[in-house]
Design a protein that fits this description.
Number of helices: 9
Distance between the termini: 25 Å
Strand content: 15-25%
Number of domains: 2
Largest sheet: 7 strands, mixed
Keywords: Oxidoreductase
Structural class: alpha/beta
Oligomer: single chain
CATH superfamily of the largest domain: NAD(P)-binding Rossmann-like Domain
Helix content: 25-40%
Number of strands: 13
Order of helices and strands: EHEEEEHEHEHEHEHEHEHEHE
Shape: globular
CATH architecture of the largest domain: 3-Layer(aba) Sandwich
EC number: 1.3.1.48
Protein name: 15-oxoprostaglandin 13-reductase
CATH class of the largest domain: Alpha Beta
Bound molecules: NADPH dihydro-nicotinamide-adenine-dinucleotide phosphate
Domain Alcohol dehydrogenase-like C-terminal: 123-214
Family: Belongs to the NADP-dependent oxidoreductase L4BD family.
Length: 307
Amino acid sequence: MLTRTIYLSLDPYQWGRRRSSLETAGEVCHGRTVSQVVESNMPAYREGDFVFNTNGWQAYGLTGEGISVFTYMFPRQIDPALAPISTAIGVLGMLGLTAYAGVYVQCAPKAGETVVVSAASGGVGQIVGQIAKLCGCRVVGIAGIPNKCAFVTAVLDFDACVSHKSPDLPEALAAACPDGIDAYFENVGGKVFEAVLPLLNPRSRISLCGLVSQYGNPSSDDPHEAWRNQGQSTFQRQNVEVHQLVVGNFVATHQDAFLADMADWVRDGRIKYKEDLWPGLRQAPTAFRAMLEGGNFGKTLVGVGED
Ligand code: NDP
């Protein structure tokens, strides 16, 4: 089918594709999209339907086994009555599933435990913290500027949020976690991880989702290995469970349950979401850079037809 892109999702993994030479200059950049069907030879889709697919950074794309520019990945119908269609690349999409898999499946926090999440106001982080609140946990966010910290506590109802820009990050985080940390959702790495390490409780769990602080670092060949080396002695001493998170591994097993739960939570306001919409495909490179540098606020997406 031929589809017209409406929203393009910008995600930090796209930087990794560049870096690992999965993409070279002149090729279409990878990107998950919300699109509308223009013409279809696929029986499950009709003209006018809204779909989640992978058109990449382009205004139109072909979807179908063997004809998509990118690996044919989990296209699905979007029900516009369920929620705004943009949520299919956000809270009701891979991003929400990432949070759900990391918190529910991997960290499985119990009521009363302390859960910490980095990049707390971002696309994944904001959902992680709210799911942990639904589990009855004390939730502490780590974010950049004061506005983001204020949003995380005042709007999303986290118990506390500390700034990684503060020179007192280790002390501030320790004060916000008086009973230590039972589960940590890692989006960032670097000095944020350094501040988390001494606070990890025995048998705590970590979901290693991403290491965005390392994504522009040319000297870091394998950020994951460097991260594991940094944490190794603490992991052994405290018997910490580390779970690598790859959202694609949870689609077959957890997507249906996730969509049912999350649609309910969004509908009744138990999960809120903040999007950062950049109008016009031309803005994609600027928006992408801003996201990696913390210049975004919420889930970053591009309104493709909006220039
Ligand atoms: P975000 O919306 O969270 O944007 C990235 C955020 O990272 C920025 O807003 C900024 O927030 C923070 N950041 C950037 N540089 C630094 C730094 N040096 N130190 C501390 N914080 C920094 O992006 P997403 O929600 O899309 O992605 C979050 C993470 O999830 C990423 O690591 C990504 O790779 C990962 N991911 C992994 C998946 C998987 O399957 N494992 C799937 C989807 C996402 P602030 O201003 O608060 O510092």
